[in-house]
Amino acid sequence: MEKLFLVTLLTTAMTLFAFNINSATKEDFMKIKGIGTKKAEKIIAYRKKHGKFKNADEIVNVKGISKKIVEKIKSFKG
Q: Residue 4 pLDDT > 80, yes or no?
């Protein structure tokens, strides 16, 4: 029963957070206000070099990405 609840919760969360930072293209990132070509390219380059992001907060490790941009990414619904 507990596993079913966790699977349902995870599925719901993934549906609500439709923007996937680990599969987003440059064009996807550029739909977010404050992210242009250069920032989108830096995010993707970082992802290619370091592997998938564990969570959206990790994007702040990309040079030029502020906490404010991270919050915009988190709230973006695509």
A: no
H helices present in the chain, as ranges: 2-16, 26-30, 37-50, 67-75
Give the span between the Cα atoms of 9 and 27, in whole angstroms: 29
pLDDT digits (tens, 9 = 90+) for 10-68: 555 554 556 899 999 999 999 999 999 999 999 999 999 999 999 999 999 999 999 99
Angle CA 33–22–45, to nearest 5: 75
| Tokens (6 digits) for 55 | 């969570």
Between CA 75 and CA 69 the distance in angstroms is: 10
Within 8 A by CB and 6+ apart from 50, the residues are 61
Q: Scanning the structure block, which residue is given the tokens 């619904």?
A: 77
